[in-house]
Amino acid sequence: MNRPLAIALTLAIAIPRAGTAQAGPLSTGLKADYIVIRDYFIRAAEKMPEAKYSFRPSPDVRTFAQQVAHVARDQYNLCAPVIGGARPMNIPREDTVSKKADLVAALRTAFAYCDSAYNTLTDATGAEVVGSGGYRKGRFAMLNWNVWHTWEHYGNIVVYLRMNGLVPPSSEPSR
């Protein structure tokens, strides 16, 4: 390949097209992190047998079902301000939902709700402050909070899975 052609191809790939919205490296990276933990968490919820949803490693911590319900509920708490609406009603509560099928469905619905928040995030909109009270932060900060909070609880349920002889999704061989 001749040098002028190589330079032209490199520039065509590297320079964003005029008028095209660019998510940017920060928002793209955050969304990628979210997708990883979203998928691990759903797979872990699917992997735990129904009979083990009441499992808790000690009496002073949440059951597996309560962990799943908590993460599903907080998808709404942390993504609603970014989406710009009130969080939906009838979202799972730790003390009312315990069946695997109900919780996996609730978790999938909650993550789908948050998908729209991550899909609209760009580096340009990331600093815009949203929410109220303790939930008043920039869009990027709010969604970053959601990512690390979900990872925190994934760490909890990894222990629950391992104590029940199951390999967590993050430790499974690559697909």
Question: How does this model look, in words?
Answer:
The chain is built from 5 helices and 2 strands. It has 175 residues and is mostly helical. Mean pLDDT is 87; it is low at 4-21.
What is the topology?
Layout lengths: L2 H12 L10 H23 L16 H20 L16 H21 L8 E2 L6 E2 H25 L12
Antiparallel strand pairs: 1-2
Brief summary of the model shown:
The protein has 175 residues and is mainly α. The protein is built from 5 helices and 2 strands. Helix 3 runs antiparallel to helix 5 (139-163).
CATH class: Mainly Alpha
Please give the order of strands in the largest beta sheet: 1-2
Provide mean pLDDT, rounded: 87
Strand proportion, as a percent range, falls in under 5%
The domain count comes to: 1
**Would you give the CATH topology?**
Four Helix Bundle (Hemerythrin (Met), subunit A)
CATH homologous superfamily grouping = dinb family like domain
Distance between the termini: 36 Å
Structural class: mainly alpha
- Catalogue the unreliable spans: 4-21
Shape: globular
What value does the Rg take, in angstroms?
Answer: 20 Å
Notable characteristics:
mainly alpha, two-stranded antiparallel ribbon, 175 residues, Four Helix Bundle (Hemerythrin (Met), subunit A)
